[in-house]
Design brief:
about 170 residues, alpha+beta, single chain, 7 strands, 2 helices, about 35% strand, five-stranded antiparallel sheet
Length: about 170
Amino acid sequence: MQKRLLIDLSTLPEDGKNVSGELPADIFDLPEGDAKATGPLEYELFVQRFGSELLLTGSLSAPFEFICVRTLHPFTQTIRLESAAVSQEITTEGELDVTEALREEVLIHFPIDPRCEDGDEPQQCEIDSRYLAVDKPEGDDVETAPRAGTDDRWTALDALKDLKDQH
C-alpha cells in the first residue's frame, strides 16, 4: 500500500489515465475523540489534465467508526462516493500529491449527526429512556441537566438581554 497518491504530470497521457489502489487510514489524522478511520481509503479514479488543473473523477470509499448521537454507542459506517470529482490546481510540473485533496473530499461527506441506524450494519437507534426528561423514573442514576440560572455564563447573557430590552 502506498503512503501518498502522487501523479507524475510528465508521464500523464493527454487523454488521461485510470488509477486505483489504497491509501493508509492514518492519512485522515483525526483528533482524539472524533471519528476514527478503521480501514484504508480505496480509490478508483480517472485522472486528466486541463491546462493548470488536474481533475480526478471516480469512486472513493473509507470505513470509519462514529459515535451514535442517540445511543452514544460506536458503529462503523463506510463513506462511499461513487461519483467523486476532485480538482487540484497545478502549480509546479513534476509529481503532484493529491492525497490531501482526496482526504478532504471524504471528510466533507461525514454525517452531521451520525446515527447507528445508518451504519454498515444498521442497529436499533433509540434514545435510552433514562435520558428523557418526560416520565423520568424516580431514583435512576442519571444526573439531571443543570437548570438555567445556575450557570453564570447564561446569567450573564440574560443580563445583556435585559439591558437591550430597556432601550
